[in-house]
Specification:
Layout (H helix, E strand, L loop, with lengths): L6 H10 L9 H15 L2 H5 L10 E8 L4 E7 L7 E4 L3 E7 L1 E9 L4 E11 L3 E4 L7 E4 L6 E7 L10 E7 L3
Parallel strand pairs: 6-10
Antiparallel strand pairs: 1-2, 2-9, 3-10, 4-7, 4-9, 5-6, 5-8
């Protein structure tokens, strides 16, 4: 599928992801990390794309996708935040520009979670997670100006609206 990256680059990204063994293997995660390392190393390419933006929120921009994976550029406006969530698929992301605060949580039941740690994710940062979690977290742009991240999810964007499996409510620890 052609996205904002164009047909040739989208095809190269999707081929590099090695999804022939599925999206829950170590080889897939290593390939996804390599793709993200490459993309975050050329921020001018991503920043030059005509990416959608949403003031005060975040906008998802499909870069490439097929029946196994979807690759998104997310532009985070000032104050943008996700819900506290876990994923139904593998989730890899890399920071292109700006800073996002990632807060990790521990579930105390099926719908509530307590915060456990918090980290600032700056340009160049890359992380990959399998859906064997729980991998409960929230992402926020607490900074000034937009932040841009690239996300590679192990799902077909035609079959699922997002990678979120479960949403949680924060409670004090």
């Amino acid at each position: 599928m052609q996205g904002f990256l164009g047909e040739e680059r989208s095809g190269a990204v999707l081929n590099a992801l090695q999804t022939h063994e599925g999206t829950c293997s170590r080889d897939y995660l290593a390939a996804a990390r390599a793709v993200l390392d490459e993309l975050v190393a050329i921020p001018d390419l991503i920043q030059a794309l005509p990416l959608l933006r949403k003031q005060g929120g975040y906008a998802r921009n499909l870069l490439a996708g097929n029946e196994a994976v979807s690759v998104w550029a997310m532009v985070w406006g000032e104050g943008a935040t996700t819900c506290i969530h876990d994923h139904h698929c593998s989730c890899c992301f890399g920071m292109v520009a700006g800073v996002l605060t990632e807060t990790w949580y521990r579930a105390i039941d099926a719908s509530r979670a307590v915060p456990t740690e918090e980290h600032e994710r700056q340009a160049g940062y890359v992380a990959c997670m399998l859906p064997t979690g729980p991998n409960i977290h929230r992402m926020q742009n607490r900074g000034v100006g937009d932040a841009i991240s690239i996300h590679i999810y192990g799902y077909d964007h035609h079959l699922h609206d997002s990678s979120v499996e479960t949403e949680y409510t924060a409670v004090a620890g």
